[in-house]
Specification:
The protein contains eight helices and ten strands. By secondary structure, it is of the alpha/beta class. It has a single domain (about 5-250), classed as Glycoside hydrolase/deacetylase (TIM Barrel). Strands 1-2-3-4-5-6-9 form a seven-stranded parallel barrel. Helix 3 links the parallel strand 3 (about 60-65) and strand 4. The chain is globular. The protein starts with a strand and ends in a 5-residue tail after the last strand.
């Protein structure tokens, strides 16, 4: 029987501003990637999200991004790899502290937005993220975008690496995410996303927008928590996988 994790990016409000229905999606997913305060999130939101996840038995990870509240971390910023290394270490430490405060613990790190996309393409950036994770806590795993530079970078640092695919994003022929704003980048239909995910899990491969099959291990599936259809998509994905005999469980506990 196949086993796979279902994750979502959560805790992405800021101050009085909320983003997504974290409480509802935590009833569906098995892992939560919690924003660390630079692209979104703050100590209050982080603590609340970690506490909600703990109460539901959901594993948690740090979700570091660029310091870009205005752009939600989706704009590339001109930091050097060394600066990125320290930015990531800073955010992972914050996540560890707030998780511990609530009696929970982070077990992995997943880069967010533009930082993740940059690390997917550029090995020096991926290496910087992996070094930061190892320096803070070498027992933390790396949740990496499948078939990208993030995978060998994490492995080279001696980290446990788990590869993820995206339920609600389209892929290029090179196995990269289609940039937001381009045709096919976003998959908004819950049932369409669920059927596509089941196809990829059963095939052990990414399915590109053109229908090309790119074999890869699949350890986790991401549903972005900030979209209006996030909860419906996560539930549809979970229901479709479980109906096919796939076990949903966190890759790190």
């Amino acid at each position: 029987m196949t086993r796979v994790d279902l994750n979502s990016d959560l805790g992405e409000g800021y101050g009085a501003y909320s983003c997504g229905d974290d409480a509802a999606i935590l009833d569906v997913v098995t892992s939560a990637n919690v924003a660390c305060g630079l692209h979104a999130g703050d100590p209050e939101i982080m603590a609340k999200t970690f506490a909600l996840a703990k109460a539901r038995g959901v594993a948690v990870g740090a979700h570091p991004g660029f310091p870009d509240l205005w752009g939600f971390g989706r704009r590339r910023m001109p930091f050097s790899p060394d600066e990125i290394e320290r930015l990531v270490a800073y955010q992972v430490g914050a996540a560890q502290a707030l998780a511990a405060y609530t009696g929970h613990r982070i077990t992995y790190v997943k880069a967010h937005g533009a930082l993740a996309n940059l690390a997917a393409e550029e090995r020096p950036v991926a290496d910087a993220i992996a070094r930061a994770v190892r320096a803070v806590d070498r027992d933390l795993a790396l949740l990496a975008i499948a078939l990208t530079a993030q995978v060998p970078a994490g492995e080279a640092c001696g980290l446990a690496v788990h590869q993820e695919i995206f339920a609600d994003r389209g892929y290029t022929e090179a196995g990269q995410l289609i940039p937001r704003g381009q045709p096919g980048a976003l998959i908004t239909g819950a049932e369409e996303a669920a059927g596509r995910v089941l196809h990829m899990v059963e095939a052990g491969a990414i399915l590109t927008a053109q229908g090309t099959v790119l074999p890869t291990p699949i350890h986790s599936i991401c549903v972005h928590g900030d979209s209006a259809h996030a909860v419906a998509t996560a539930r549809a994905v979970r229901d479709r996988l479980e109906a096919a005999g796939v076990t949903l469980a966190a890759f790190q506990s």
